[in-house]
Amino acid sequence: MTVSKNQIVQWLEKTADVLGKNKEYLTELDAAIGDADHGINMDRGFRKVMEKLPSVADKDIGNILKTTGMTLISSVGGAAGPLYGTFYMRSGMAVAAKEELDNDDVLNMLQSGVDGIVQRGRAQIDDKTMFDAWAPALAALEASLGNGDDLVPALGNAVAAAEQGMKDTIPLQAKKGRASYLGERSIGHQDPGATSSYLILNALLEVIES
Amino acid sequence: MKKLINEIDDVVKEQLEGMAVAHPDVLKVHFDPNYVYRADAPVEGKVAIVSGGGSGHEPMHGGFVGMGMLDGACPGEVFTSPTPDQMYECAKAVNSGAGVLFIVKNYTGDVMNFEMAAEMAHADGIKVQNILIDDDVAVKDSLYTAGRRGVGVTVLAEKIVGAAAEAGYDLDQCADLCRKVNTYGKSMGMAITSCIVPAAGKPTFDLPDDEMEIGIGIHGEPGQVREKMATADEITERMAKEILTDGAYAREVREFDRDSGDWVTVDVIDPVFEEGDKIIAFVNSMGGTPVSELYAVYRKLDEVCKDFGVEIVRNLIGPYITSLEMQGMSITLLKADDEILKFWDAPVKTPGLRWGV
Hints:
heterodimer, A: two-stranded antiparallel sheet, B: 8 helices, 26% strand
């Protein structure tokens, strides 16, 4: 199957909706080990993306994603702004000029985005960051597609891996970001960035499987 | 939540509007993107000093814009890093051609947003350098954390480097001085209440009446450790000793290489405090603690410093780097050589600091 431009737009709309609904939850997670603004910032950023979307919805997928990235960079702030902004900008660059995506494109899009996150934030596995959700998700997606699975079940596996990765951040001691200042006190709390990453990937699955 | 605000979404905007009408002789405010800048910018032939960070720390940074300190300050949402477009537009507005020094507090968000801004400024042909402030001794190492936070030394660096720029230091000299001030200064903070971010509507953490957080940052986040409340003398002595006996802290930071247009890793090591050192002592209110209590702290700080064998030669006492209405205080000690003292004493005319004019 191919993913249409329309579905990418729907992904962004669903993301905005999900982040809006989870604003308090993400903020609560961030109050425990951060400065209580992750949910507020992501909601603000994606509301700005929604304002921008109509003006680019008929452009190619790369353009839509790059515009999303740039909008997030200038509206989210904090660490999430540069990280997610870079994610969408690099994803967009990977699928520049495309009007629809095949399986390889989807993998390439997400992988390039995550590579951007790592380059900007320099996180490693088990630092207790969003990378702890994205890394297993991408590994699962690549393995699944490599096994010949269709996109929907492959993305299902990726989302399940992201969810597990998100939960697996709970016992970790943070080594990056504001949570790292808490030392051992960061243990026992789920990372807010890993949580929003899971929600974003899950939104993509929900759009594509419907 | 009881605050002197109107609509929550307008908090930052209205405060900036208030600053603009209160201090038109010293600064101007640009909206969309938001930044505060010197009314007489760009200042011919002078390196522009630009900083920024989340709102909620006033007077830092917008209140430090003016002669002898900052040329530009970029305010983010409350406790949220500003975005690269703010720093980029601000840099363009204040750059005289001599270049821009970004003074960056070492928080993951600030560091990344200022890095992206530096890349954008560089791509536009603006000479730029980023120097990190990472003075908070409550964070013990940098291998397993995001590194020490930038706290009280930020204010001192903005003053000292601002004066140096005014005196004609070029971009590399300003950067070197900023790096020196950062390594020579150390801080620690504590809180007896949390604070309320307007958009969140409730305190960031709950602190029982008989407890305190030691080793806090400036964004209302929990500190290093929570303990039973102690006396001003006990708290001051413990924090001052931790600062004075802090070891030669070593870490890697990223700075900008103008020739390659890329980031390079630099090794930075702090000297230790030694007997005979001259000190600038900064006792800071987190916002809610009255100045009177800061003087009780200073009384004990002076005694502890004398016992250690260092001499306080200048001081700054008051709310200069705050966390909204948090009750608490931070102590910053800066080893001062002749260069640092000269620029500390130099005239400054900003809403937050004003002397010699």
